[in-house]
Write a structure and sequence with these properties.
This protein has 205 residues and is an alpha/beta fold. It is 35% helix and 11% strand. A 6-stranded mixed sheet has the order 1-4-3-5-2-6. The chain starts with a helix and ends with a helix. The structure holds zinc ion (ZN).
Length: 205
């Protein structure tokens, strides 16, 4: 019964989720980085802004680090990234550490480079950890992640099917990329099987 299912989805979206505690730990985002982000958006998406408006997707990642500090330091230093050698430096809006502390590094109304093809419409959440299993197995980190994601969903009206893992980026209906060599580029973090479980936990909240 698709109509009934759609109604349930709507009811779930309307249910306001409480804002979890968020520690403000902003990376510098001076006018130079804003200009670089705008240039990136023009090159990759054909849109002329560094602003993130009406986000439709949340992408979950893990950091491949064991702590928060090196993640902040990498994102804060605005030099070309080590993988694609492009400016601005990569970043994510939020990082959650293993104690369940949520840090906001970039406000969600500014674009961050965290997922090729989706940065124009996606909020990025990084989890401190070395694997999907570690993130999913850490009770405090996972609880904070679900609370943050639920709150962002209710704030922006983002459907649970659009809460995806980085490894699922190419199958998102929102994926778009103007640079041909990057059209199939993705990463292996937060696999489909992990995200099936993650989305089930989200829906159960
Ligand atoms: Zn990732």
């Amino acid at each position: 019964m698709p109509v009934f299912a759609a109604l349930l989805t709507t009811i779930a979206l309307l249910a306001p989720a409480p804002r979890p505690h968020i520690v403000q730990k902003r990376i510098p985002f001076p006018p130079r980085r804003e200009r670089e982000t705008r240039s990136y958006a023009i090159r990759h998406y054909g849109i002329h802004t560094f602003k993130l408006r009406n986000p439709k997707v949340i992408v979950e990642h893990f950091t491949e680090t064991t702590s928060f500090a090196p993640v902040w330091n990498t994102f804060a230093r605005d030099v070309p990234d080590v993988e694609l050698h492009e400016l601005p430096q990569v970043c994510a809006h939020f990082v959650i550490d293993r104690s369940g502390r949520i840090y906001e590094l970039v406000p969600p109304n500014i674009m961050c480079r965290h997922t090729v093809g989706l940065n124009w419409t996606a909020i990025g959440i990084e989890h401190v950890g070395m694997s999907d299993a570690q993130v999913m197995g850490d009770r405090r980190e996972l609880r904070a992640s679900l609370a943050l994601t639920r709150w962002l969903q209710s704030r922006y009206g983002i459907l649970t099917r659009n809460v995806i893992g980085h490894s699922e980026s190419l199958s998102s209906p929102y994926h778009r990329e103007r640079v041909a060599s990057l059209r199939r580029q993705t990463h292996a973090d937060m696999q489909h099987a992990t995200m099936v479980r993650y989305r089930r936990l989200l829906r159960a909240r």
